[in-house]
Amino acid sequence: MSDIAAPKRTRNSASFADVIVFIVAFALFVFGLYLFGAAFSSPEGTEFWVFWGGLLASSFAFLVPIVYRWARDSRR
Question: Number of C-alpha atoms within 13 angstroms, CB side, residue 37?
Fold first, then answer.
């Protein structure tokens, strides 16, 4: 029989920059949720813009880690 040995796993640890990117992305996401709710009590005529600001903030919260990983990827 063949002896199939699984390669050893390397321990993944987060760097300081990874933690900062996570905190920034999480803060953007929570701020976007806040803007979603604030749109319903904002002054007349600004509801649309406040809601869209929340949508953009939440979208950027997902975009920030993706761009960070793409810029940091060493397989290029």
Answer: 5
